[in-house]
Amino acid sequence: MKEVAGAITGDEDKKAEGQAQQRAAAAAQEAAQKERTRQEQAKAKEAEKERDRQERKDKGLLGDVGDTLSGL
After folding, report:
1. In 10 A of CB 6, how many CB atoms?
2. Which DSSP letter does residue 72 get?
3. Which residues contact 3 (CB under 8 A, 6 or more apart)?
4. Exposed, middle or buried, 49 (CB in 10 Å: 0-12/13-18/19+)?
């Protein structure tokens, strides 16, 4: 908005201030998006760890080793 007002009135300082504000807002939005991405990645990694823990728990101590004597 300041950039437009500065351009209309010929006020270069106001125009530069408006551009600086737009750059700052864009940088803040980018930082917020990066943080959201980081948080989602951390959640996904934790979910994968939990899934792996549950798989190990479900397999038990012997893992995939079955009962070899059940056919006798």
Report:
1. 18
2. -
3. 14, 15, 17, 18, 19, 22
4. exposed
Q: How far apart are CA 11 and CA 18, in angstroms?
A: 11
What predicted TM-score, i.e. pTM, was given to this entire model? 0.59
Dig out the tokens for 33 from the structure: 């998006």
C-alpha distances out from residue 24 to 1, 7, 30, 32, 42, Å: 14, 19, 10, 12, 27
For every one of its 72 residues, what pLDDT tens digit does the chain have, with 9 covering 90 and above? Answer: 767 777 788 888 888 898 999 999 999 999 999 999 999 999 999 999 999 999 888 887 666 666 666 655
Run of H or E including 11: none
